[in-house]
Structure prediction request, 211 residues.
Amino acid sequence: MDDLAAAQQLYDTVADSYARLLPDASFEAAEDLAMIARFTALLPSDARVLDAGCGTGRMQPVLRELLPAHRATGADLSEEMLRHARAAHPGTRFDRAPLAALPYRDGSLDGVLAWYSIIDTAPAALDAVFAEFRRVLTNDGVLLLGFQHGSGERRRSEAYGHAVELRAHLHSVEKVSFALEQAGFTPVEGFVRPARSGEAQDQGFVLVRRA
Prediction:
């Protein structure tokens, strides 16, 4: 089973528990939320923003608070996750799609938030994802990524109360930043936040503009 099929199966299985255990962005650290605020500050007030790998849509309230007039869209692999997203945010469009094949026109989005969605993407497959993000963004569009910082893979046999095989790819801020520059993005900011109590990994964040 490839990474995408495994991720879809995993998130379909844990969707109900995930929605109950992580209903919103209250788990995020203050530094994480501040990074999202810097992302939205670079966008027009009525920006068209894609939550790429949106899951249950738990980041939608954060985006709505920071950018009240923005036009939101979400995309995810898991239909079960999207079921929760559509129920919680009935005014938002949610599409089932992989990150490397988004169903949006060239240059149709002002911003893309990829919040922990590339943890299911192997480093060798990031170029295709980043090329797709660049394709859907307007000139000078803005992209923010959050991910588990490191190298290699992190494996678990339990997630959100379910016995599942979880394999998360770790990515470094340096390598992600380099790959984004190669894909045609201009760096704005990148940093590593040390792991908090209960977190297995440091967390990485990269903010870029479409060159």
